[in-house]
Specification:
Layout lengths: L5 H11 L3 H4 L16 H7 L3 H20 L2 H18 L6 H30 L11 H8 L2 H12 L4 H8 L3 H18 L2
């Protein structure tokens, strides 16, 4: 029996997945200022089908991923992958919004881990060069934080999650969330005069 390789499976998923351009009318850009959904229970109650759930939550998830990654294209890709995984488990989930948020946070963490590995590899193989870009100071300061601190700050202040929701998304205890936020704010105070 011959198994299909990873490339063929990925190609098959890509052939059947909606292209990102088709999703553009459904996903408001980050500049439109769309208010996030009020609560997971309201979203789950209002969304009787996967399509309804997707339409109700995709803007919030892209916004969350954007704040964690700093790239809208990467955010859309990661969120799209999370929706594909969610669709496979849709009928077995009691709280799909919590599962999706945790999947997005984990996908962003994996993305940063891959970037860190690539950066470490490049540092070992290439001489370091310094590039000075004019960028937003707050975004730079947040990007300089360790991933878990950055995720805790973004989830708390931009996504308005409670400590329990952040702990669930990061896979830690609620007390750890307080510590992460405290340390992140201290670092931001040092970085921003």
């Amino acid at each position: 029996m011959q198994e299909t390789g990873g490339f063929e499976r990925q190609k098959n998923v890509q052939d059947h997945a909606a292209p990102l351009e088709a999703l553009a009318p459904l996903v408001p850009t980050l500049d439109e200022g769309v208010a996030p959904a009020s609560s997971e229970t309201e979203v789950a109650a209002a969304a009787s089908t996967f399509t309804d759930f997707y339409c109700a939550t995709v803007a919030d998830m892209v916004r969350l991923a954007y704040l964690l990654t700093g790239s809208e294209e990467t955010a859309r890709d990661l969120v799209h992958d999370c929706y594909l995984r969610l669709h496979a488990k849709w009928s077995r989930l009691d709280v799909p919004a919590a599962y999706l948020r945790k999947a997005v946070v984990n996908a962003c963490n994996s993305h940063h881990r891959a970037l860190r590995r690539q950066r470490d590899h490049n540092a070992r193989t290439q001489p370091a060069t310094s590039v000075d870009l004019d960028a937003d100071e707050m975004a730079d300061a947040i990007a300089a934080l360790p991933y878990r601190q950055r995720a805790a700050i973004v989830l708390r202040f931009w996504h308005d999650c409670t400590a329990a929701e952040i702990a669930d998304a990061l896979g830690c205890r609620p007390g750890t969330v307080g510590s992460l936020i405290h340390r992140a704010l201290a670092e931001l105070r040092k970085a921003l005069p």
